[in-house]
Amino acid sequence: MGAYIAHKLHQARGASRVLAVASTSVKNEALHQMADALWNNREEILAANEEDVRAAEAAGQPASRIDRLMLNEHRIRQMMDGLCQVAQLEDPIGERLDTILHPNGMRIEKVRVPMGVIAMVYESRPNVTVDAVGLCIKTGNAAVLRGGREALRSNIALVRALHKGLQTSGVPSEALQFVERTERESVDLLIRAVGLVDLVIPRGGAGLIERVVRHAQVPVIETGVGNCHVYVDASADVAKARDIITNAKTQRPSVCNAAETLLVHKSVASAWLPEIVPHLVRLGVQVRGCEQSLSILRDEGFSDVSAATKEDWSTEYLDLILAVKVVDSLDAAIEHITEYGTLHSEVIVTESEEAAAEFLSRVDAAVVYHNASSRFTDGFEFGFGAEIGISTQKLHARGPMGLREMTSYKYIVRGDGQVRG
Amino acid sequence: MGAYIAHKLHQARGASRVLAVASTSVKNEALHQMADALWNNREEILAANEEDVRAAEAAGQPASRIDRLMLNEHRIRQMMDGLCQVAQLEDPIGERLDTILHPNGMRIEKVRVPMGVIAMVYESRPNVTVDAVGLCIKTGNAAVLRGGREALRSNIALVRALHKGLQTSGVPSEALQFVERTERESVDLLIRAVGLVDLVIPRGGAGLIERVVRHAQVPVIETGVGNCHVYVDASADVAKARDIITNAKTQRPSVCNAAETLLVHKSVASAWLPEIVPHLVRLGVQVRGCEQSLSILRDEGFSDVSAATKEDWSTEYLDLILAVKVVDSLDAAIEHITEYGTLHSEVIVTESEEAAAEFLSRVDAAVVYHNASSRFTDGFEFGFGAEIGISTQKLHARGPMGLREMTSYKYIVRGDGQVRG
C-alpha cells in the first residue's frame, strides 16, 4: 500500500509542475474535454453506478444515502455543466496581489501560484470527484482523490472518463490521481505524506473530518461541521425571525449551514415561542426545548416538544430537529454560541443596530449574519462561482472556499545585483 | 502537566475574546507600558539572565549560543524599541478586505480578525519572547509562549515585567501566558490542544520544527529551514554573481536565508569557478565541490576544496560552508533545486530575461530572486515593519510573515430578512 500511494503522489507531483505553468486556455480546454468525455462515456459510468447503487440497497443503506450515490443522465449533465462553468471563471493563477518597491531598487511582486498537490478525502457522493478535479485543474493543482467505498465503481468509471478527456488536452493526465484502495490506511498514508501533499481537504461527516485533522502531518483545512445558531434578540422583528429560522432549519436540513439551535431572548420568548414552535412542528420539525421554553409552551397548551439535554446544545442534527433555548441577554446568547458553536455560521435577528454590532464583532465564526438566513454560507451565494468546501478553521481560508482559496502565493524579486548591507 | 497547560490555554482563550475587540489605542498603550516595564525591571531581568548565561557556560555551550542567550542594557533597549515600533505600525484588525453585494440586497463584508490564541514554541533567544508578545497583542491575539530551557530564568523575568506592563493597560494580562515547564510533554500538549490553540508557530532548529509539524493536531505554520541556492546561469554577469554569492553565503551565514549551494552553468564554470572559489575560501568559506568543479579547480592548481557527497546537497549548513555544483543547463539547475530545496529562497543570476522568466515561474519557493541576494527574505526588508518568522509552507502565508499574516478574516453579512429560495 505504501508504494502504491507513493507512486501516485510522485506522479501527481511531477504533473503539478507542468500544470503550475500551464496557460489558462490549456486548463480550460482540459475542463471542456473532460466534460465531453463524461458524456461520451456515460453508459459505462451509469452501469458502474448501478452496481454501486445495487450494492448499497442490498446493504440496507437509507434512501437519503442512496440518493446521494445515484447518477443518471441529468446528473451527468450537471457535472458537465459544473466543469464548463469553472472553465468560464477567471483564472486566479498569476494574479499580482501586491508590489513592493525596495528602497535599493528591487521590485518585489507577490503573485498567486497553485498549492501544488491537493488531496481530497471524501465520502459517498460521486459528483465530488468531478467537482474537485475541475477546481484543482483550473487552479493549476494536481488532484489526488480518495473517495468512499460505496461509490468506488462509479468513481473509477468517472475517473477513467476524465483521464480520457485529459489525454486529448495539454494537461498531463497524471494530474488526476484516484486512490482505488478504500482501506483506512490509504487515508493515513495520504495525510502523512509530508513534502508530497501540499494540502489535504476532508469532506464528509464529522468523524472523517476529525480523524483527518487529528492525524494529518500535512497542512489540512478543516471543513464543514456546522452547529449553527439563530439568536432572536429582544429587539427582533418577529416576522423576520420567523422567516429566518424557518428557512435556516427547514429549507435543506441535511447541510452544514442549516441552523441547529434557536436562541430566544427572554423578553420576546413568551409571546413568540407559542407562535413559532407550533409553526415549525407543523413543518415536520422535532423541537427540543430548555426548561423555560417548555414551561412557556405548556402554559399555552402546546406540549408537542421534548426536553433538551446538554448534548442537544452540541449536536449537529443535520435533520429536522431543532434545539430551543431561552437566554437572559445578548451576552448569554454570545456565551452559548462561544461554548457550543463550531465557527461556521451564526445569526442574530434584531432591529437594534447596537445589538447587531455587538454580536457581529464578538461572535467568532466564519460567517456572522444580521437579519439573514445562515443558509447563504455557500461559495455560489458569495459569488465565487465555485466551492470546494466551507472552512471552519482560521488558518488560510475561512467560510466558503472558491478558486482563490485553493491557491498560495510566492514573492518574485527582480534586482540588478543587490546585496544586503 | 495536562491541567497546568489546560489552565493556561483557557485563560488565554478568555483573554483573547477581550483582546479581539480591543481598540488600536488600547493595544498600542499596552505595547508602550510593556516597553516601560522592561526598563523599570531591567535589574531583575539582567540578574536572571546572568544565571542563565552562567549555567550555559558551565554546561560548556559554544560561544555563539551564549551570545544568543545574553542580555544587556543595550539589548533590553532594542527589545523596547521593537515594541514601540510595532505600536507605530498600522493595525491590521478590522481592515475590510472585500465587499460583496448579493443580488438579493445582502451586503457581505470580508473583514480581518485576529486568529485568537497563537502558541509559539522556540529555543534559546529570549528576545523572541518580547517580539512575539508585541506582535500577538498588536494583532489582537493572545500569546502562549513556550521557550527553551536554557533561557528559562530570563524568560520568566521578562514575562513578569511584561505582565506588570499589561496590568497598567486595558489589555488583560492573561493575554500573555508563559509555559514554565520545559519538558517535551509541554510542547506536545500545546500542539494537540484542538479548539484551544488556533495556530502554533515553531521557531528554532530543523529538529524542533519537524517535531512540531509531525505531531501537531492544531494548525501549524512551518518556518525557517532554508536550503537556499544561487544559480549562476550561462548568461550571468559574473561580477554580479560574485557579489551575490559572497553576500548570500558570508554576510550572516547562521540564518535561514543564507545560501548553502552554488549551482554554476557548465559554460561559465571553467572561467568563473577558479575566480570565485579562492575568493570565498579567503573569506573563510569551506567549499565542497562536485566532481566537475573539483577537476576545474585542480586544473587551475587550486586544491583547498573537498569533495561533496550527496548529503551536502540537502544540508542547511548555517555556517561558512558552501556546496558547489556544475550543472549542464537551466533545466538541470531547476531540477536540482526542486529535489533539494526547502521552498524558502532561490536565486538566479543571469542577464537573459528568458532564463530569468523560466526560473522565476518554475521554481517553487516562497521567494524567487533574479539578480539579488537571498538575504533579503525578511519581513523588515519587505517593508512589513515586523516579522514573526518565515513560512516555508504554502498554506496561509508564504515567506516573511508580518502582522497581516498573524490574522484571519470573517465574513459579516447584513440583511433585512433574506432567506434562501
UniProtKB/TrEMBL annotation, chains A, B:
Every Aldehyde dehydrogenase domain range: 9-283
UniProt keyword annotation of Transmembrane helix present: no
Any Pfam family: Aldedh
Localisation: Cytoplasm
InterPro entries attached to this UniProt entry: Ald_DH/histidinol_DH, Ald_DH_C, Ald_DH_N, Aldehyde_DH_dom, G-glutamylP_reductase_CS, Glu-5-SA_DH, GPR_dom
Keywords attached to this entry: Amino-acid biosynthesis, Cytoplasm, NADP, Oxidoreductase, Proline biosynthesis
Annotated HAMAP family: ProA
The name this protein goes by in its record: Gamma-glutamyl phosphate reductase
Natural source organism: Alicyclobacillus fastidiosus
